[in-house]
Amino acid sequence: MDVCVYCGSSPGARPEYTEAAVELGRGLARRGWGLVYGGASVGLMGTVADAALAGGAVAVGVLPRPLGSKELAHPRLTELVIVGSMHERKAEMVRRSDGFVVLPGGFGTLDETFEALTWAQLGIHDKPIALLNVVGYFDPLLAWMDRAVEDRLLRPQHRDMILVSDDVEEILDALVAYDPPTTAKWLDLDQA
Q1: What is the DSSP letter of 66?
Q2: What is the pTM of this model?
Q3: Residue 72 has what DSSP assignment?
Q4: CA-based Rg of the chain, rounded to a whole angstrom?
Q5: Taking a C-beta distance cutoff of 8 angstroms, is the pair 128, 174 a contact?
Q6: Per-residue exposure over 141-152, b if at least 16 CB sit within 10 Å of its own CB, e if not
Q7: Which residue of 7, 21, 99, 151 has the fewest C-beta atoms within 10 A of its own C-beta?
Q8: What are the φ/ψ torsions at residue 58 (nearest 5 degrees)?
Q9: pLDDT tens for residues 112-153?
Q10: How far apart are CA 131 and CA 68, in angstroms?
Q11: Taking the mean position of all CA atoms in its chain, how far away is CA 43?
Q12: Which residues in 2-147 belong to E strands, given as ranges?
């Protein structure tokens, strides 16, 4: 299984974020799974890649050419894919992955996460998407989603697509056990 990890290019203010990134990278390696991520050597991105690589995992980074000077490419990746835009980055990461785990991050992390969720909602893919809810980081986001369901702006079955836990092993087990909702596929990912 190849797991796409969305996370911050900053380590954040809490040591628990870094600890979770290390644990996730190690967990992927222990299972013999590959890592697909944004390709940077900095922040939580670099931390999860370092841990996965140290454990012997294959690590593929996808880095847009325009970010090359801002997000330094990780020098030890199994493969670094350079793409032309953020849209190409997201599409390539989805194409190469069997599931997604989201660690704390900012706008970019949420952009990637919500595109993957929207594509799942529309039936473009049926891959599991999990939030690793480190020290309750995603609690406000989950509350917003629950409000969207309550206000009938989001269907309960789409809210239920999101796997949530604060435990790495539980998240990784959930990726394997995921049973996607029945949704008609209307667009091939290669055309997205």
Answers
A1: G
A2: 0.91
A3: P
A4: 16
A5: yes
A6: beeebeeebeee
A7: 151
A8: -80, 130
A9: 999 999 999 998 999 999 999 999 999 999 999 999 999 999
A10: 27
A11: 15
A12: 2-6, 34-37, 59-64, 79-83, 99-102, 129-132
